[in-house]
Amino acid sequence: MLCVNVELQERRYPILIGSGLLQDERSYPIKRGDRVMIVTNPTVAQFYLDTVIYALEKRGCVVDHVLLPDGEKYKTLESLKLNFHRTFAR
């Protein structure tokens, strides 16, 4: 696994590059009991969502997800807020 650290003016974060990262528990910077929200779209979800949810739940996380429709016009703060409110109301 290769780790590339991205350093921006206001924040920094690692990008992991490698084969099998979705199944590798070291790829998830979380701990047992954390609540995790996955935001994705149906195109990506059909390939990866179940694998990511399984890996996170296996680590003891409480996982929920939001599916935004495909397309840039849905990648807005308003769209995300609406889905978060629905999710946290459960």
Automatic annotation (TrEMBL):
Its EC number is 4.2.3.4. The keyword Magnesium does not apply. GO terms for molecular function: 3-dehydroquinate synthase activity. Coiled coil: none annotated. Keywords: Lyase, NAD. InterPro entries: Dehydroquinate_synthase. GO terms for biological process: aromatic amino acid family biosynthetic process. This is 3-dehydroquinate synthase. It comes from Haemophilus influenzae.
